[in-house]
């Protein structure tokens, strides 16, 4: 009898009973979530509408900013050319003034000798050209950064370079190579990749000496382990422009 009573009391499978109770309770839970769903949908729709309406203005502002930057860069290029022209005129007048007096020949020779390493005058001579670029992988950690160019140029100076230009910008002892976001700047002038480093010096020894410098070791690692691309050529001659800014920050003229 006890067995029959138990069968009658549990005629419905216990799993079915639990599932049924969950479903019945679930509908109530779902109805409770409906207002939240409606509000979220409305907010999403409003956000989409506002974004769509703001898109033309954002594009317009972006275009205006790009145009302003390009105009400023063009003006800066024009001013740099004017500075270079004026500097050439000053150098010519200086040479004329010294040539008028035979006793100034020694001073003129010293100025000619110092004008090359200081970047005060344009130069042409034998040398090598480095062209470096990011790794083809496109990985964020496989890009050329400002520190890499600093290591490269410092190593070249150490190897005996007499003059260096990066993407046409002549380097001096006061030239700053820095990073600005994703860009690299030389004296606050943004560079575009690939980066061309023109070097005047003995092409027969310059590259070999560079390999043994800290900069050479640095770039050997970048090329073999990171995939940074490096090509070196030896043209018939290398021409470097004069530096657009040759100034002294602390040094002052002395008396002999």
TrEMBL record:
<protein>
    <submittedName>
        <fullName>DUF881 domain-containing protein</fullName>
    </submittedName>
</protein>
<keyword id="KW-0175">Coiled coil</keyword>
<feature type="coiled-coil region">
    <location>
        <begin position="69"/>
        <end position="96"/>
    </location>
</feature>
<dbReference type="InterPro" id="IPR010273">
    <property type="entry name" value="DUF881"/>
</dbReference>
<dbReference type="GO" id="GO:0005886">
    <property type="term" value="C:plasma membrane"/>
</dbReference>
<dbReference type="Pfam" id="PF05949">
    <property type="entry name" value="DUF881"/>
</dbReference>
<comment type="similarity">
    <text>Belongs to the UPF0749 family.</text>
</comment>
């Amino acid at each position: 009898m006890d067995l029959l009573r138990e069968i009658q009391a549990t005629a419905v499978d216990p799993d079915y009973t639990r599932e049924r109770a969950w479903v019945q309770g679930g509908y109530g839970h779902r109805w409770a979530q409906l207002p939240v769903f409606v509000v979220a949908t409305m907010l999403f729709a409003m956000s989409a509408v506002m974004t769509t309406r703001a898109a033309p203005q954002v594009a317009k502002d972006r275009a205006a900013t790009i145009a302003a930057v390009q105009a400023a860069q063009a003006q800066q290029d024009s001013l740099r050319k004017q500075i270079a022209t004026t500097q050439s005129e000053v150098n010519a007048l200086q040479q004329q003034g010294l040539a008028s007096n035979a006793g100034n020949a020694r001073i003129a020779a010293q100025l000619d000798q110092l004008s090359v390493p200081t970047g005060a005058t344009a130069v042409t001579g034998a040398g090598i050209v480095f062209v470096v670029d990011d790794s083809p992988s496109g990985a964020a950690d496989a890009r050329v950064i400002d520190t890499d160019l600093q290591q490269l140029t410092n190593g070249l100076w150490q190897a005996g370079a007499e003059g260096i230009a990066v993407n046409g910008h002549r380097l001096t002892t006061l030239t700053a190579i820095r990073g600005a976001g994703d860009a690299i700047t030389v004296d606050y002038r943004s560079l575009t990749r690939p980066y061309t480093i023109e070097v005047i010096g003995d092409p027969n020894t310059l590259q070999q000496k560079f390999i043994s410098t800290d900069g050479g070791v640095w770039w050997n690692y970048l090329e073999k382990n990171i995939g940074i691309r490096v090509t070196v050529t030896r043209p018939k001659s290398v021409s470097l422009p004069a530096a657009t800014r040759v100034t002294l920050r602390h040094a002052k003229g002395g008396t002999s």
